[in-house]
Amino acid sequence: MTDRDHIPGAASIIMQEARSLELLAQGLGQSFNLAVEAILGTRGRVAVTGMGKSGHIARKVAATLASTGTPAFFIHPAEAGHGDLGMLAPGQDILMAFSNSGQTAELDVVLQFCARSGIRIIGVTKDPESLLGRNSDIVFVLPCLSEACPLGCAPTTSTTMMLALGDALALSLLSARGFTVEDFRQYHPGGKLGSRLASVGDLMHSGQDMPLASPGDRMGQALFVMTSKRLGCLGIVDGDGKLAGIITDGDLRRHMGPSLMEASCSDIMTRDPISFDRGTMAAKALATMRARGITNAFVLDPGGVPLGAVHIHDLLAAGVT
């Protein structure tokens, strides 16, 4: 334990960086619109570069762009002059370069190559008259603020602004492209995020795995189908193939008696059951099933024809919460 309290200093640093973001937002000008339109109009990809801490920000910005619908990659400026310039497509790609001072020596070879190769440059720097500022087609001028570092040395305030600017650019491009949740899911199939973005269409039992019967079928026959499919439910479809009702374990318990096996499915089924379309997010389906106290539901096409069946255990097993 220590008697020293580090919280006031930490809070001051965070507030200083928060203030820098306010000034950045207030200072956004026409260069932001120009950058968005330039990237939307490029035939190639966005190459993002930077050295040191700015390079770490550049990597993250490239990853965010790529995952939100804008093809992008990181190019290390120190490696560029040793063959990595071949990653850039002349006349097609666009370069986004981060440098607080704008005088980063390692950027020079990249900037020269872009100038010779018809690659437009978007520069992010606090000095529009710097090497980067003067050689950029579009310049984002960062507010000229001191770093939050008490020594005034470690990149902190500047990199916070760069990161926020990169996020704003990527998400503005996302909106401009009409990028959807479904598009996002295609780029994020793995991990917790992938499970949260999965749709019931990804998790449903379809084809021969669907337990289906007709309204006039006797329960003795229907129960054989229901138990063989092991989903704990049975979809009842009418003559047009549309879902007319559902029979669950709960329905069987409510109608248990000597005459059950001779009853028809239409006598036992629950009409107008909860159902989903195949694009329904699995997380939304899980919330609905929990709220309604059900464990099974059918997935229907726009005409009401079953495409599949989903069990709550399927959602939970896939990591949906």
Could you please describe the fold and organization of this structure?
There is one protein chain. By secondary structure, the chain is α/β, with parallel strands linked by helices. The protein has two domains: 10-179, Rossmann fold (3-Layer(aba) Sandwich), CATH 3.40.50.10490; 197-317, CBS-domain (Roll). The protein is built from 15 helices and 13 strands. The protein has helices at 7-27, 30-41, 53-67, 77-80, 108-117, 131-134, 157-177, 181-187, 191-197, 200-203, 219-229, 249-254, 265-268, 282-292, 312-317; strands at residues 46-50, 72-74, 94-98, 120-125, 138-141, 205-206, 212-213, 233-237, 243-248, 270-271, 275-277, 296-300, 306-311. A five-stranded parallel β-sheet has the order 2-1-3-4-5, sandwiched between helices. It has a four-stranded mixed β-sheet with strand order 6-13-12-11. α3 links the parallel β1 (46-50) and β2 (72-74). α1 (7-27) packs across α7, α2 packs across α7 (157-177) and α3 (53-67) runs parallel beside α7. The longest helix has 21 residues, at 7-27. The protein is elongated, with a radius of gyration of 29 Å. The two termini are 39 Å apart.
